[in-house]
Amino acid sequence: MPNLEHPAYPAATLLQLESLVPCRESQVSMLLSIFGERQQFSVPSIFIYGHTSSGKTYVMQNLLNTLQLPHVFVNCMEYFTSRLLLEEILTRLQSSSSEPEQTSRARCDSFNDFVRLFKQAVESRELQDQTLYIVLDRAEQLREMEANILPAFLRLQELTDGNVTVVLLSEIVWELFRPSTGCFEPFTLYFPDYSIGHLQKILSQNHPPEYSTDFYSAYINILLGVFYMVCRDLKELQHLAVLNFSKYCEPVVRGEANECDTRKLWKNIEPHLKKAMQTVYLREISSSQWERLQHDDGEAGQLKGLSAHTHVELPYYSKFLLIAAYLASYNPVRTDKRFFLKHHGKIRKTNFMKKREKTSNHLLGPKPFPLDRLLAILYSIVDNRVAPTANIFSQITSLVTLQLLSVVGHNDQLDGPKYKCIVSLDFIRAIARYEHGSASVKTERTQTANEYR
Q1: Strands 418-421, 405-408: parallel, antiparallel or unpaired by DSSP?
Q2: 18: CB partners within 8 A, 6+ apart
Q3: What is d(CA 194, CA 173) in angstroms, rounded to the nearest whole number?
Q4: I need a labelling partner for 145 at 20 to 30 A (CA). Which of 163, 247, 418, 437 fits?
Q5: Which residues contact 326 (CB under 8 A, 6 or more apart)?
Q6: Mean pLDDT over residues 375-403, rounded?
Q7: Are the beta carbons of 217 and 209 closer than 8 angstroms?
Q8: Which DSSP category does 312 fall into?
Q9: What does the angle CA 357 – CA 360 – CA 362 come to, to the nearest 5 degrees?
Q10: Contact 119, 162 (CB under 8 A)
């Protein structure tokens, strides 16, 4: 029995819509009840919000297209000014489906012009007897436009005296939209995140025809078991499922296992899923390059993408600042003289170590350090003379903005700011190897001493 029912639409159409939007039946049913029949007036405005990849845009597009409701769908990110947005809505409304290229672009300088031209376009297309839906995706961009744009869209039905409903799609809540002067309150509808059961059902629908549904469902179950805690983005999970499925099938293709041998299939795919988990959300390499890396067993486990080569995009002195920050975070202050001075004199050797110093500093985490110590280490590892100019200090601020360094404490401290280095050892080693200079030697030497300490 279908979950979607409405007297104004055929059962076959609703069944097709239900198959297109799995796990969103309750939201679609709510929208159908709000829309009503074609000739009925709907609510003036609807605000739909939810996290990324929760199905807002996909559901609205399929709902309007499947039911063949007149609508205009515009992405506010593409048309980022009020004039571009209003002109695009009018252009799409005036264009017919048969001859879209013959439509001239309407000129709209104000919202008053938009209301006038909007009425003319509705009359020319004979849409007075049915509801017209204007869908604004990425609606949070409306907050960056003129102050009258958002309230005017919310009251467009009143301003045009016509049967029109404005639908706003956003990733943020309505409270962040509401103007301080007040406005018409839209009907709000929340799209929750997909649960792991929903993701399992949606991803399993895309199984290749040459493999059974149970085989692909078992693969999706393994994929979600690895990635669900760090990634719940449906688009990203679909990308990962397509990218790693060929590796999962290798034992079956070679005849080493059958589709029911889950243990062998898991042991084969496990190391590759761990590598893929290091680059979630990062489109650092193409899918074909990733597939080639899957077959490269010589450097298995080494990250070859953006995570290992981001240093190429950093300025010259920013790389040395980051290296100096890492050395200051993970080496005690008392070792600076031994590591960074050429003539440090005799250092008395002692086997006495405090209990807490026997633990590796990598397990204890990075320690805060003052700005003076950072600059002192920088001057030591850079061969040429570096002047403490505004350029150096601005690059430290940039590293904090990029979240490679973090500021400890408040900015109003009298004794100066303190920082922490929050990048990994592999990241620093990659930068040191790339520079091929004294920084590489000193970083490896101090780090080796620190590991054996």
Answers
A1: antiparallel
A2: 2, 3, 4, 25, 28
A3: 18
A4: 163
A5: 366, 421, 423, 425, 428, 443
A6: 83
A7: no
A8: G
A9: 130
A10: yes
Q: 3-class DSSP state for residue 169?
A: strand
pLDDT above 90 (res 255): no
CA 51, chain centre distance (Å): 10
Q: Residue 36: pLDDT band by 50, 70, 90 thresholds?
A: very high
Partners of residue 420 on adjacent β-strands: 406
* Helical (H) or strand (E) element with 288: helix 287-294
CA 252 to chain centre: 34
Q: Given this model, what pLDDT does residue 196 score?
A: 94
Question: What is the Rg, in whole angstroms, of the alpha carbon atoms belonging to the chain?
Answer: 30
At 47-93, the pLDDT tens digits run: 999 999 999 999 999 999 999 999 999 999 999 999 999 999 999 99
- Alpha-carbon distance of 371 to 28, in angstroms, equals 56
Phi, psi of 225, rounded to the nearest 5 degrees: -65, -30
DSSP string, 43-69: -SEEEEE-STTSSHHHHHHHHHHHTT-
Structure tokens at 4: 């979607």
Which structure tokens are listed for 120? 């003319």
Pick the range with the lowest mean pLDDT from 112-116, 160-164, 245-249, 274-278: 274-278
Which residue type, as a one-letter code, is found at position 60? M
Q: Name the nearest CA neighbour of 60 among 20, 99, 87, 100.
A: 20
**Has residue 446 got a pLDDT over 70?**
no
Against a cut of 0.70, is the pTM above it? no
Burial class (CB in 10 A: 0-12, 13-18, 19+), 387: exposed
Q: Find all residues with CB under 8 Å of 378, minimum gap 6, and list them.
A: 317, 320, 321, 324, 386, 392
**Residue position matching structure tokens 């405090």:** 354
**CA distance linking residue 27 with residue 338, whole number of Å:** 66
Do 284 and 303 contact (CB within 8 A), yes or no?
Answer: no
Strand, coil or helix: 352: coil
